[in-house]
Design a protein that fits this description.
Layout: H1 19-39, E1 47-54, E2 61-63, E3 69-71, H2 73-94, E4 102-110, H3 114-126, E5 135-140, H4 144-158, E6 165-169, H5 179-188, E7 193-198, H6 200-206, H7 212-222, H8 230-239, H9 245-265, E8 269-270, E9 274-277, E10 284-290, H10 293-306, E11 309-312, E12 332-333, H11 337-358, E13 362-363, H12 364-371, H13 379-391, E14 396-398, E15 416-418
Parallel strand pairs: 1-4, 1-6, 4-5, 6-7
Antiparallel strand pairs: 2-3, 7-10, 8-10, 9-10, 9-11, 11-12, 13-15, 14-15
The structure holds S-adenosylmethionine.
The site of S-adenosylmethionine (SAM) has 18 residues, from loops.
Length: 428
């Protein structure tokens, strides 16, 4: 809803960047570099074509409180491409691969505001990164939704095989991106990945009788109007009368909305970390949406590696869980050693419980996919928890040939996990 935000103009001062934007840029940069390095791993491959789309690009430059100039997301994309090219060349040299590798990138930058777009054009014209022979930059002074069909066509024409692409939809507030557009991206490009920011606190703080007439059209604009109404959200807010009611209804609304955003966008996987940047109290979602589990796993790895953001939520299969017994935050995940321990302990409790709810053995890979949207845990953490449980005889793990596993990280997708007979009746 809130239009607010940064302002760029050719004759004005640079806007001062907020903490949460810097934290987001760090995650984005780390993710893109990792993404491009993974694509480049095949030794016989000579290169890839990839498209990066910044759908809400902004002006491309900021300054910090202390006056230092820093990059906006368009430059973060170009810097990530440059860094990835250097790292891929180094990786391949170390592996003795002589074939040069080309990352042929098309970067689409979309910015609707005329003055911001003029500023962006200048920033890009002045950047040497935008004139690399392997990078083409197209700037669209347009609404993202209007520019999207042309961008999708460009990707399909240029990358007929798989249309690998990353879309960054960094809106102000929460109601500027229509999820039908995200659905169209996934329908036409199954290998696309989408970063979507969603200022959930703006919506929650606005929720009142007086705002219903404004919230319903905003929900319609996002494409959630059929699934969620403002009256429904308000009813959730008003039903809780407990002492710690604030956290309870916030949690209920957040759980409802993440599920609906994933469903309405056509993504199979999302990482709904509720991000509270260090030094800031303003929380928001940095959603990573994808159709493939592997992309979800890589996003979680980046959160654990960069750990400059935190997620106040559950550690096991209760990632959105806010409440402890007395309504306090159940756990504040800072993606650090303490969070690692808490995740391990929670998984050791939650996995047998989930198994008993399922009432049947399950392949390890299926358990991983089934719980991907519920847990911050990475694959290796799930492997370690399952292995520890098997050593404690709370589970059995059997390979396809009927053998047992000797190490956690050798647990494979096809391995069958079962509860010992006496544990199938564990209370839920
Ligand atoms: C949060 S700012 C972007 C910040 C930028 N992504 C960064 O990280 O440096 C959102 C930008 O989207 C632009 N915008 C708003 N609605 C838009 C739309 N429908 N299509 C394209 N741009 C839009 C705004 O003018 C604003 O510059």
């Amino acid at each position: 809803m809130a239009k607010g935000g940064y302002g760029w103009s050719l004759d004005g001062a640079l806007p001062v960047i907020e903490d949460h934007s810097r934290a987001k840029h760090d995650v984005l940069r780390a993710y893109l570099i990792n993404y491009l390095r993974i694509l480049a791993q095949h030794p016989r491959s000579e290169g890839i074509r990839v498209t990066l789309v910044d759908g809400f690009a902004g002006g491309g430059r900021y300054r910090t409180e202390s006056g230092e100039e820093v990059s906006g997301s368009p430059l973060v994309l170009l810097e990530a491409l440059q860094e990835a090219r250097a790292l891929v060349a180094m990786d391949r040299k170390q592996r003795g691969i002589r074939t040069p590798y080309v990352i042929d990138a098309h970067v689409h930058l979309v910015e609707q505001n005329r003055s911001t777009c003029a500023f962006l054009r200048k920033v890009i014209a002045d950047s040497s990164l935008a004139s690399s022979s392997d990078t083409r930059v197209t700037i669209h002074g347009n609404d993202f939704h209007r520019a999207l069909p042309g961008i999708l066509k460009d990707i399909q024409d240029r990358q007929r095989r798989n249309g690998r692409s990353v879309f960054i939809l960094d809106q102000y507030g929460w109601s500027q991106v229509n999820l039908d557009a995200v659905k169209q991206i996934f329908a036409e490009l199954p290998y696309a990945e989408v970063f979507l920011t969603w200022m959930i606190d703006n919506l929650i703080n606005f929720l009142s009788e007086q705002m219903i007439d404004k919230l319903n059209p905003a929900l319609q604009r996002t494409g959630l109007g059929q699934a969620i109404t403002a009256e429904q959200l308000l009813a959730i807010k008003q039903t809780d009368s407990g002492l710690d009611g604030d956290l309870a209804w916030r949690r209920a609304i957040q759980t409802l909305m993440t599920g609906q955003i994933r469903a309405s966008s056509g993504a199979a996987f999302s990482t709904p970390f509720y991000i509270v940047p260090r030094n800031s109290r303003r929380g928001y979602w940095l959603l990573h949406l994808a159709r493939h589990w592997r992309a979800n796993e890589e996003m979680k790895r980046i959160h654990w590696e960069s750990n400059n953001l935190h997620h106040p939520g559950g550690a096991g299969f209760n990632m959105l869980g806010y409440l402890g017994n007395h309504g306090q935050l159940a756990f504040d995940n800072r993606f650090d050693e303490h969070a690692h321990q808490a995740t391990r302990d929670a998984l050791r409790r939650d996995i047998p419980q989930r198994m008993s709810q399922l009432h049947s053995p399950i392949r390890f890979g299926d358990l991983v996919q089934l719980t991907a949207n519920e847990t911050p845990a990475r694959l290796d953490q799930l492997q370690e928890a399952v292995f520890a449980l098997s050593r404690e005889r709370q589970l059995t793990v059997t390979t396809q040939s009927g053998a047992t596993r000797r190490g956690a990280h050798s647990i494979a997708s096809e391995d069958l996990i079962e509860l010992p007979t006496q544990l199938w009746l564990l209370p839920n």
